[in-house]
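## retry 2 of 3
previous attempt timed out at serialization; input unchanged, resubmitting
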Amino acid sequence: MIQMTVGDFKAQFSAVLDKVLQGDEVQILYGRSKKPVAQITKIEEKPKKKKRPIGMYAHLGPYWEDESFEFTPENLFDNMDDLLL
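## retry succeeded, writing output
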């Protein structure tokens, strides 16, 4: 781990980023007491997630309608008498 003051960090910013990309960690020290206030590390890329299929039955294939199927209000209410008590 590399430790450096804020002034050194500002002066060597590009070089510090190169070291971080190589895997080093940099700790920033602040004030006369040189207390650590920040730490810079390389961000690890997460693997891309696999796209999920939409819907519960998407794995069964595409949906299609029969050409002979017609949806009309009459068809909707044909069996309504059977449903009513």
